[in-house]
Amino acid sequence: MSQGQRLPNPPEAGIVNALRFTRTPLRFLEGIQSRYPDAAEVSVPGGPSIVVVTNPDLCHEAMDRIDDFSRVPASGAAALIAENGLVQTEGDLWQRQRETIAPGFGSDPLRTYVDRVGEQTARLRGEWADAVESGDTDRDLHRDMTTVTVRAATEALFGTDIGAEGAARMHRLMRQAGAEFEISATAITPEWLPLPLSDRAQTVGEGLKTMGEEILETKRADHDPENPSDMLDFLMLAEQHADWPENHLRDQVVTFLIAGHETTALSTTYTQALMSWHPEVREKVRAEAREVIGDDDPGHEHAQKLTYTGQVFTEALRLYPPAWAVIRRADGDQTLGGYAVDDGSIVFLPQWSVHRDERFFENPAQFDPSRWDDRGPGDKGPYFAFASGPHACIGRGFAINGARVALATLTKDFDVDVPRDALSDLLVTPTLRPGDGVDATISRAE
């Protein structure tokens, strides 16, 4: 039993709270956030307790203490995809992977990625222009942004553009994965009661691994060990000089095939929805884009100058963080902020509810990019869309700069109108995802 003050428990029975969490997780987190200033514990019969941390200082402390609060090991359907990928591993293996991969996220790869985002967004802009000309103005905004980000990511990280067909295939697989990985009552099933994997989970896992193998096969044909330039080059070089787990390269490719595009595709989709509902913000983004980009080809050279667009993106991530919570497991009995956290407890560090807490943000439900006039998204505090600590998102710079360029490029020339209820029923999977896409209507901006 841990030393320290016992965490408060919500008054309802543990199983009732646990079921509420699995049925309406975001609403449940908001309820805990409003009632408990630091954290609360929900007992789960037959399984580990759920600890929800509501104090951002304690969230950052837990993320810093990676030996005490580790990642939850992949299991079930998730283990089918990339068991040895960077977002799953721990300890010495994670350290070696991080050090090997880091050069692939340096300044030159960043420039390549943002330039590729500019190229792909310009391609989409041309596609939209043709669609408006023909009167076909209805779009699935999330699918469009997936195409932009996954093609840019695969080219920058793996040295290959998977093309429109590959992007469409990835979008289908991720939609299937979203339905399969949505939080449900199985999330609180005792560990001693294993559940069979569905046929759909098997199909998604095999589909993603097949894409990973295809990318690897293409890379092996073109790999130049004397001139490494992207993340996969550095991984392949390291594989020649050290022992790695079986399927290590494929697992890294699949990990970054997903992580390299998904959160940026989601967040740029949600940002455009919010701009649709706040046309005054959209007009300011458009004015900045026309001043900064003008008639140039959009790319890395413009990213840092798109400061207001960056604030809009940051504010959208505050309200709709694709990574809605960091989830950790207590390794041994721990204390956190003087509170006892028992061995094996599942610890939620929820961006969703902390970002919406009026203790930390004035009028938290309001979409207000100006709140970032005097505070930066990198300030360690109640905003942690990219997590923090040693396991913080390695691709943060890619996401922020790429999103600025993509948003500015499209907003410069188009109005994107999204129904007001488009984000009202997001699927709570490892990321917040639209269940059936995000319908949008595009038109030429004045």
UniProtKB/TrEMBL annotation:
- Read off the Gene3D superfamilies from this record: Cytochrome P450
Q: Which GO terms describe its molecular function?
A: heme binding; iron ion binding; monooxygenase activity; oxidoreductase activity, acting on paired donors, with incorporation or reduction of molecular oxygen
User: Taxonomically, which superkingdom?
Assistant: Archaea
- Which parts of the chain are coiled coil? none
Keywords, alphabetical: Heme, Iron, Metal-binding, Monooxygenase, Oxidoreductase
> Do the record's keywords include Repressor?
no
Q: Identify the InterPro entries for this entry.
A: Cyt_P450, Cyt_P450_E_grp-I, Cyt_P450_sf, Cytochrome_P450_Monoox
Database matches in Pfam families: p450
Q: Which family does it belong to?
A: Belongs to the cytochrome P450 family.
The entry's protein name is Cytochrome P450
Q: Which organism is it from?
A: Salinirubellus salinus
